[in-house]
């Protein structure tokens, strides 16, 4: 199937986010049956219903595209265009009634991130970035901060629990050198970085559906996001992610992580 225009890609991503929000908000702050997956993360009926709705749209509009989804598996990963879907990023936030969960959508074109979206249905904020075009929140342009020094940086991660002992030691070393460190927020930390109010996000134990949507947003907003070795993120990255507002800050933070 032929490649799409950036405008068409954005329209499809918007439709996917709209469909996911209908399902997820229908279940938010209601009693839910919680299932524990093999990786010990909780799944809810809302997760599965939201991804099903997204897949139905892609089946209608882009039947030849690949899909890398959290809940319903992988399809056609040899396709030129691959949609990476996380219907509810921050399931623990969702099931405890916190508003800081979101829907993540990434689009890979020829293995490169062409579009990334962080949609926050409860907050009413939709953050989207497109390669070569820029990033926006609810239609308004956003940009990362200009911070270049670790000592002036505001850093966030979801939880200390996501790190193994060695990775926690590395994160602790870096974060204590920063001006401020915060925990919590799941995918919202990446949106905050794209909007210039956070300067660093460092995490571990992630899957492609956790980081490729945010990566498209951050790169479009002028930031840098890689693995802990400074390599570009892709479907086979090791799940350790560092996102920074500027190349200088990224380099300095990497040096502390790997000290």
Structure description:
The structure is a single chain. The chain has helices spanning 6-27, 45-61, 91-95, 165-176, 188-195, 208-220, 247-257; strands spanning 34-36, 42-44, 66-69, 73-75, 81-89, 102-109, 112-120, 125-130, 134-137, 140-142, 154-157, 180-183, 200-203, 224-227, 241-244. The chain is of the alpha+beta class and 259 residues long. α1 runs antiparallel to α2 (45-61) and α5 (188-195) packs parallel to α6. The protein is built from seven helices and 15 strands. It is globular, with a radius of gyration of 17 Å. Belongs to the inositol monophosphatase superfamily. Its cofactor is Mg(2+). InterPro entries: Inositol_monoP_metal-BS, Inositol_monoP_superfamily, Inositol_monophosphatase-like. This is Inositol monophosphatase family protein.
What's the short story on this structure?
The protein has 259 residues and is of the alpha+beta class.
| Multimeric status of the protein | single chain
Number of E strands: 15
- Sheet with the most strands, sense and barrel status: 8 strands, mixed
Helix content: 25-40%
First-residue to last-residue Cα separation: 46 Å
Shape descriptor reads: globular
The DSSP helix count reads 7
> Low-confidence runs (pLDDT<50, min 5 residues)?
none
Pfam families: Inositol_P (PF00459)
Family: Belongs to the inositol monophosphatase superfamily.
InterPro entries: Inositol_monoP_metal-BS, Inositol_monoP_superfamily, Inositol_monophosphatase-like
Cofactor: Mg(2+)
């Amino acid at each position: 199937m032929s490649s799409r225009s950036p405008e068409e890609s954005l329209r499809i991503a918007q439709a996917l986010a709209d469909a996911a929000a209908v399902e997820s908000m229908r279940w938010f702050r209601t009693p839910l049956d919680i299932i524990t997956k093999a990786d010990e993360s909780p799944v809810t009926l809302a997760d599965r219903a939201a991804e099903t709705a997204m897949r139905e749209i892609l089946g209608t509009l882009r039947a030849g595209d690949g899909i890398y989804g959290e809940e319903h598996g992988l399809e056609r990963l040899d396709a030129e265009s691959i949609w990476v879907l996380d219907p509810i990023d921050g399931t623990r936030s969702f099931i405890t009634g916190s508003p800081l969960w979101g829907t993540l959508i990434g689009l890979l074109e020829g293995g490169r991130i062409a579009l990334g979206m962080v949609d926050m249905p409860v907050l009413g904020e939709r953050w989207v970035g497109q390669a070569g075009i820029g990033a926006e929140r609810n239609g308004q342009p956003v940009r990362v901060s200009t911070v270049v020094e670790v000592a002036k940086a505001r850093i966030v991660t979801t939880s200390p629990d996501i790190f193994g002992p060695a990775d926690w030691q590395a994160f602790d070393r870096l974060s204590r050198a920063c001006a401020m460190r915060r925990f919590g927020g799941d995918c919202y930390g990446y949106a905050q970085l794209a909007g210039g109010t956070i300067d660093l996000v460092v995490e571990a134990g992630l899957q492609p559906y956790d980081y490729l949507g945010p990566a498209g947003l951050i790169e479009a907003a002028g930031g840098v996001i890689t693995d802990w070795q400074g390599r570009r993120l892709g479907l086979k990255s090791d799940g350790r992610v560092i996102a920074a507002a500027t190349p200088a800050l990224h380099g300095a933070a990497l040096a502390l992580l790997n000290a």
